[in-house]
Design brief:
alpha+beta; 8 strands
């Protein structure tokens, strides 16, 4: 079996891929490294646990069809042949012949189901929490595999409590900074989800918002950075632990006054 693996920028640099949590992206790369020369592997859950990814990450890869799953626990990298071109003298055929026979290979190299009118019962799109099995939750035959149809989960697919958390955090930012960001934006949700996965709490988000509004709201150069992608990005922990020194400006404002009325008062001095 070949020991080197490659990745197509058309896949791993797409919005559909980069908008996933970093843990899901890392899981995809590691699954590729563990797969055989046809892109199949039977230990996806072990890989997931080894890199401390969650079952949600594995389900996300299945739902967005970066991998295809079978009820017996085998998975295949959907775009394997777009990622890899292995020399014949180094190629070892997969041992999962039955699963391989259920798939066709498209002209671009992507795997797809042979019978889309009557999807094979052994294909699955969601990982079962109990055991090493896969369970069919959605009809595979009705899902287009085009790049435009690979998207982030909608509100209906999100866990209700997580969707409410997104809304609470973004609403708090809008209230404090006088902004109008949407909690449904994929980039915003990805940033918040990544921090939640790292163990940060709702109070931590509010603390960061309060601190940076106090520091930046009255600063024309820094005010533009009161946005989700900056506040909730990779510097989040640094913002959370930064010490804030209260200061009084000559114009009579307190830097901790982050309400909309403070911004209106600033306008009166301009």
């Amino acid at each position: 079996m070949a020991e080197r693996r490659m990745f197509s920028s058309k896949i791993v640099c797409s919005d559909a891929f980069t908008e996933m949590p970093f843990s899901a992206q890392a899981l995809y790369f590691q699954l590729n490294m563990e797969a055989d020369d046809d892109g199949f592997l039977n230990n996806a859950r072990r890989v997931q646990r080894t890199i401390c990814a969650s079952e949600e990450d594995l389900n996300l890869l299945l739902e967005k069809r970066f991998i295809l799953g079978f009820k017996n626990g085998v998975v295949v990298i959907k775009h394997w042949r777009m990622n890899n071109q292995i020399r014949k003298d180094r190629y070892t055929p997969t041992q999962y012949h039955e699963e391989f026979d259920l798939l066709d290979i498209k002209t671009d190299g992507a795997y797809t189901e042979k019978n889309k009118e009557n999807p094979v019962d052994t294909l699955a799109t969601t990982w079962q929490p109990d055991g090493n099995q896969m369970a069919t939750q959605y009809s595979i035959g009705k899902v287009s595999i085009g790049k435009d149809n690979i998207s982030c989960p909608s509100d209906d697919e999100e866990k209700p409590d997580l969707s409410e958390t997104y809304k609470t955090i973004v609403s708090y930012l809008n209230e404090k900074a006088g902004t109008n960001y949407k909690h449904t934006t994929a980039k915003t949700r990805t940033a918040i989800h990544a921090r939640l996965e790292e163990g940060f709490t709702l109070d931590d988000f509010k603390t960061v918002i309060d601190k940076k509004c106090a520091d930046w709201l009255c600063d024309e150069k820094m005010e533009k950075y009161l946005r989700p992608e900056t506040l909730f990005g990779t510097k989040f922990e640094g913002y959370l632990n930064a010490k804030h020194t209260e200061r009084n400006d000559n114009d009579g404002f307190n830097a901790k006054d982050t309400s909309n009325s403070a911004k209106r008062r600033i306008g009166n001095y301009i």
